[in-house]
Amino acid sequence: MQDKKVVKFGGGFYCGEVDGIYIFNGFFMSMRSKFTGDAKIYYYVAKWEDSDIKWADFRGKVLGPTDPADAPADSIRGMVAAQWKELGLPAPCNVGDNGVHASASPFEALSECTNWLESGISSEPFGRRLLAAGISKETIKKWSVDPQVKFDGKKCSLFDLVEDMDSTECLDTLVKIADAYGSAGSADL
Fold this sequence. Notes:
The protein is an alpha+beta fold. The protein has 3 domains: about 1-40; about 40-100, no CATH class; about 105-185, no CATH class. Helix content is about 35%, strand content about 15%. The strands form 2 sheets. It has a 3-stranded antiparallel sheet with strand order 1-2-3, with no helix packed on it. The protein has a two-stranded antiparallel ribbon with strand order 4-5. The radius of gyration is 18 Å and the shape is globular. The protein starts with a strand and ends in an 8-residue tail after the last helix. Residues about 185-189 have low confidence and may be disordered.
């Protein structure tokens, strides 16, 4: 068997290539069914300055933790969990179906905007900051599928590495990774 190649399209949605065959994770179709048919998806794009609210606070306090059972009552997930019937949801919220998604970092937000909203890297503020820092569009696209990278002597998911970082810290971390891989990160990861 050759090395597998895995691409992350979104939370829990992966596709991998093994010996020339593309394979989706086994629970993808059940996840997909929640976003097709009679389901409705609404999205909002929220943008703010680092000084206004920390990324971790937006996700943890405004949005609420991934598990709605742990969400503060005044958080978005807390309110959706409390009002799931009134909102027409078929079942109470849980970790997998928690009512709302938010990107885990400025970089993940950029990746999701370019994937789901079909915006260009240079049309997004964080994308422009990455480009201005010398990171190529090619590298940003490679990073948008959440590759494993080496950082501080450890190999880890790029998305996990920058999770809950504010934009300045996230940018600085990505520049360090790009520098470590040479040519502003254009080397294979």
